[in-house]
Design goal:
This protein has about 300 residues and is of the alpha/beta class. A hairpin with a 3-residue loop joins strand 6 and strand 7.
């Protein structure tokens, strides 16, 4: 599929993949795609940053290359490494046959035949259906030296391999970078990207998301879930629940055949929604009961209106 030619087409493309986005996100994505710039998405965990890359790959029929970042990530895991085992076999064969000089052997050993390509290098290669979608996920988990290494690729879409030279992409890949903001990303990298903060959705959009992602949940249960989660996000918790947790909670309650929220159901499944024991202890019991009463009163008032 070709790139969208307007913000409206971009918004429709995301919806086609089941991603409910607001117009500002669709605008940022459209500009990144049109101007061939990476899109840097920052926000709390579970708000749907990674899903954008997956949806683009699925709907546009592009190959998805995912680089999951972690502390200590290096070039060998992210970009390339030499196949040392195959190189040793080649050396042994050359020694056994004895028909190749040292210079020719060295040139052959450091050719693409012995190169193991990792996601960043693969992203520069042409792929069926068009340039791939490169997802650099949770960049904030890496070290600053690796972040600095990305600058060449993100500015010129090229990678330099000392033994071979500089490899340049014929067409730039679609690059989506995500960060949960556990540390600040350097300005030099952000300057090479379009930036967008992915926030928690409002109640109406979260209800729409739930209808797409948890269609088996009864309508009243879905409204209760969204209203309950929206109130939790106003509470002083160590980790606020994201959209991913909202969907998981709905799936869990449907699996338990719950038609609506009640005190027992909340207490039994709170670990699906909250991921820290201190948060669970703070909400479980009387606080959950209070929030549920407010939710039910609000829904009753809306129904009466």
């Amino acid at each position: 599929m070709d790139l969208p030619t307007s913000v409206e087409q971009t918004h429709a493309l995301l919806q086609q993949g089941g991603y409910i986005a607001d117009r500002s996100l669709a605008t940022a994505l459209y500009l990144a795609l049109s101007l061939k710039r990476p899109l840097f998405l920052e926000g709390e965990a579970g708000v749907g940053k990674t899903e954008i890359a997956k949806v683009l790959s699925q709907v546009m029929g592009r190959k998805l290359l995912r680089l999951q970042c972690y502390e200590g990530l290096d070039i060998a895991s992210a970009v390339y490494e030499w196949n040392y085992a195959l190189q040793m076999v080649e050396i042994r064969l050359a020694e056994a046959v004895g028909d190749r000089d040292r210079t020719a052997l060295e040139g052959d050993l450091f050719s693409k035949r012995f190169l193991i390509e990792r996601p960043l290098l693969q992203a520069l290669e042409a792929a069926p259906g068009g340039p791939p979608v490169l997802l650099i996920d949770e960049l904030d988990r890496t070290d600053e030296p690796f972040e600095a290494y990305l600058l060449e690729m993100l500015s010129d879409f090229q990678i330099t391999i000392p033994e071979i030279g500089t490899i340049v992409a014929d067409q730039p890949p679609i690059v989506i970078i995500t960060s949960n903001r556990t540390r600040e990303i350097h300005d030099a990298l952000k300057r090479r990207c379009f930036y967008y903060w992915v926030d928690y959705p409002d109640a109406a959009r979260e209800l729409e998301i739930l209808a797409k992602k948890a269609p088996d949940a009864p309508a009243r249960l879905s409204r209760q879930i969204v209203a309950f989660v929206q109130r939790l996000r106003e509470t002083d918790l160590f980790k606020l629940p994201g959209v991913a947790e909202t969907i998981d909670w709905a799936d869990a309650l449907v699996q338990l055949d719950r038609l609506e929220l009640d005190q027992q159901s909340i207490n039994d499944t709170l670990g699906t929604l909250l991921k820290y024991q201190d948060d669970i202890a703070k909400i479980k019991g009387s606080e959950a009961s209070r929030i549920l009463e407010e939710v039910n009163a609000e829904l009753s008032a809306m129904s009466a209106a």
